[in-house]
Design brief:
10 helices; alpha/beta
């Protein structure tokens, strides 16, 4: 069995253990719906379905399809003739970023764990934007795989200009004693080691004007009582971003991070129980979860030398709330 399939099986086993613990708890009453803030190009969904899906989480299975296409976003060749890798690019934020990168003129390699159906759909959207798309299946915990993924991308596109580290593992825990060594290790190795492995593999091919963009999280800024291990890794990613930015600034390679708040992607329905999913994002100041298309322009901004050539070492919060940092 390929390593990526073994990892997906491990994720489902961790999920099943937590599902059993959740089922033993009394259900909470659903709060009254509140009006959500709408400040973007089009109104976004306020209500989410009460849905729980199996890990690693297929976007194709979601009852409410995440919005990633950003029909009001017009490309202007900000990333023309560039080549990018997006890990976790098969769905969610990664898919939205891949589509906008293609719209801005970049070829895109999608690194994903095992969600073939989602990855093929992302490829269709990237190619519909007139750019090339490479699908690379594997586990970012494996340093050798990360090196191979970068080499495949360079062989296919002739270069590498942008690395987006976005792949992640998340499973909630109500208390510290629910957090096994295995689960902590899986979260740390996916979310931190995976970013480290990909950055190290990409570095020999990056040059002046290139950039690395890491996906952090609001929970890495504020903490989360139910995401002890995940929050720990996101805080580490923020520190890794700033440290690597300082390390590479003399080479003209910029390193930044985006810290999303709650976003409607397969990650959360594959984590939380259905009743919690239905309330996801309602505790933000905007009283709703974001859609992936509301995050992806931030990744374009940070990748484009014409926009962010004087920006490195920042963690950009896109959280739907005031005062995230």
């Amino acid at each position: 069995m390929p390593r990526s399939d073994r990892t997906a099986d491990k994720h489902r086993r961790i999920q099943a253990e937590q599902d059993r613990a959740d089922a033993a708890k009394p259900k909470e009453e659903k709060p009254q719906a509140k009006g959500a803030a709408q400040a973007g190009a089009r109104a976004q969904p306020q209500e989410l379905p009460a849905q729980h899906i199996e890990k690693p989480g297929l976007e194709a299975e979601l009852a409410l399809k995440p919005r990633f296409h950003a029909p009001d976003y017009e490309g202007s060749n900000k990333l023309r003739h560039m080549a990018a890798i997006v890990t976790g690019g098969d769905s969610g934020i990664g898919r939205a970023v891949a589509v906008l990168y293609a719209r801005e003129g970049a070829d895109v390699a999608i690194v994903y764990l095992s969600e073939d159906e989602d990855a093929e759909e992302t490829k269709r959207w990237v190619e519909a934007e007139g750019r090339r798309c490479l699908l690379i299946r594997g586990d970012v915990k494996d340093a050798a795989f990360c090196k191979q993924a970068v080499e495949q991308t360079v062989q296919a596109f002739g270069k590498l200009d942008i690395l987006v580290n976005n792949a992640a593992f998340q499973e909630h825990a109500d208390s510290l004693d629910q957090l096994s060594d295995e689960r902590f290790d899986e979260t740390l190795r996916t979310n931190v080691y995976g970013y480290f492995h990909m950055a190290r593999a990409a570095l020999p091919y990056l040059k002046q004007g290139s950039s690395i963009i890491n996906t952090g999280s609001v929970v890495g800024l504020e903490g989360s009582p139910k995401l002890l291990d995940y929050s720990t890794t996101k805080g580490a990613i923020h520190a890794f971003t700033k440290s690597l930015a300082a390390n590479l600034i003399d080479k003209g390679i910029r390193v930044n991070a985006v810290a999303p708040g709650p976003v409607w992607t397969p990650l959360n329905p594959a984590d939380k129980p259905a009743d919690k999913v239905q309330k996801f994002g309602q505790d933000t100041d905007m009283k709703r979860a974001a859609q992936p298309e509301e995050l992806s322009p931030a990744y374009v901004f940070l990748a484009a030398p014409s926009c962010a050539g004087y920006i490195t070492g920042i963690v950009l919060p896109v959280t739907g709330s005031i005062g995230a940092i």
